[in-house]
Amino acid sequence: ASARAKEERFGFYDRHADQALARELSLESELRDAIVRREFVNYYQPKIDMKTGKLAGAEALVRWNHPVRGIVSPAEFVPVLERSGLVIAAGRQVMEQAMRDWREWHEAGLKPPQIAVNVAPAQFRCDSLIGDIERVLRMADPALRPLSIEITESSLVADHARVVEILTRLRSLGVPIAIDDFGTGYSSLAYLVTLPVDVLKIDRSFVMKMAHDAGYMGLISTIVSLAHNLDLKVVAEGIETEEEAKLLKLLRCEQGQGYLYSRPIPAADFAALLSR
Ligand code: C2E
Ligand code: MG
Ligand code: MG
Ligand code: MG
């Protein structure tokens, strides 16, 4: 084919690729401004003790309070933060905000629970992580263990010795570590079980299917047994029905999180919930 024909053949696709790249770059530059203008806000989703039904913790979930579009979901911008490296600066703000909110609730006598913050792979690998965490812990009260972190399997597949070192240092700061979306990655169980972590979080995609699919019920039951044999706790995410809650309780899952109990809510609403 002539160069001309080739251009006609592929020009269409190239233009789409160009448009996608242009969108990515413009979103990236908007996000850079969002960091400077501090447009990110934390919402908090309660974690419930499955045995007592009481509040056992909360997860901080970032939203972008966009000047024109209003509240934007993390699905739309966290991947761009991750690809651009901006997640390090943005993640630092999420952690700061979580500990500032925690301290405010604490000072108001509201007895805030431990708050889990999601840490992206680039943040986890970043040399400043431990220092950042020490700093935000001092904003709250480190002795009351105000912070935990959630990381995904992809953070853990790097250099084993370094991963173990980071996890061990976090633990020594009194910051428990959960493996988020457990079972959805491709790392081997044999590898994961050698790591010093505290909690396995069962992904919503498994919880969604458990009531109708015995295979998923078996899978969750296996994850819970594995966790308990290793002295880890289990948190299930995405619980939407009483039936799912009942099954997870039967399986001895310690904590649950999902729309059945509450959606992620703004800090002021979470404070109201604490004062009830
Ligand atoms: P994730 O950490 O696995 O968080 C759980 C997601 O499931 C949240 O979505 C939560 O709102 C949603 N969820 C909880 N219960 C239910 C339920 O019963 N039904 C349904 N349909 N959904 C439920 P969200 O807030 O949109 O966050 C999506 C993802 O964005 C998070 O998944 C996490 O990977 C990422 N993310 C959110 N905040 C941060 C952050 O501060 N830093 C980083 N690095 N990632 C974040
Ligand atoms: Mg999470
Ligand atoms: Mg999760
Ligand atoms: Mg998930």
UniProtKB/TrEMBL annotation:
Keywords: Coiled coil. GO terms for molecular function: cyclic-guanylate-specific phosphodiesterase activity. It comes from the Bacteria. The keyword Cytoplasm does not apply. Residues 24-276 form the EAL domain. This is PAS domain S-box-containing protein. It comes from Pseudoduganella namucuonensis.
